[in-house]
Amino acid sequence: MCEHHFLPFYGFFHTGYYCAEGYNHKSLMNSIVHFYGFKLQVHERMTRQIAETLSPLVGGDVIVVAEAGHTCMISRGIEKFGSSTATIAVLGQ
Q1: Segment holding 87, helix H or strand E
Q2: Which pTM does this prediction carry?
Q3: How many CA atoms within 13 Å lie on the side-chain side of 80?
Q4: Which residues cross the membrane (predicted)?
Q5: Range of the domain at 30
Q6: Mean pLDDT of all residues in the chain?
Q7: Do residues 85 and 45 touch, judged by C-beta distance below 8 A?
Q8: Helices (H), the chain
Q9: Long-range contacts for 76-79 (Cβ within 8 Å, ≥24 apart)?
Q10: Contact, 91 vs 65, CB < 8 A?
């Protein structure tokens, strides 16, 4: 939910990481995304927070790409139907 307009945004998060231990962190990543996604939030900050939370858990090297459609872009302002915004956070090497 966008903290600026109190309208939802929805989309997909793509994560990539290098983990020397070989663990699969899928359920952990889903929990982190849901934790930050259920707050009043802005898209850019949420992408960064997910990367910063995931990074120490997988050894530091992580990339998070967030693609989302913003209801505020459809219902007000530029009224662009079908538009989406992508943000990227990269931590580590």
Answers
A1: strand 85-91
A2: 0.79
A3: 8
A4: none
A5: 9-91
A6: 79
A7: no
A8: 26-37, 43-58, 71-75
A9: 76/5
A10: no
* CATH assignment at residue 65: 3.30.1130.10
Q: Pick 80 or 48 by higher pLDDT.
A: 48
Instruction: Tell me how far apart the alpha carbons of residues 9 and 37 are, in angstroms, rounded to a whole number.
Output: 10
pLDDT tens track for 45-79? 889 999 999 888 887 789 999 887 766 666 666 66
Task: Note whether residue 61 is domain-resident.
Answer: yes
**Residue 48 falls within a domain, yes or no?**
yes
Q: Is residue 2 part of a domain?
A: no
- Give the separation between CA 54 and CA 77, rounded to whole angstroms: 34
Phi, psi of 15 (to 5 degrees): -125, 145
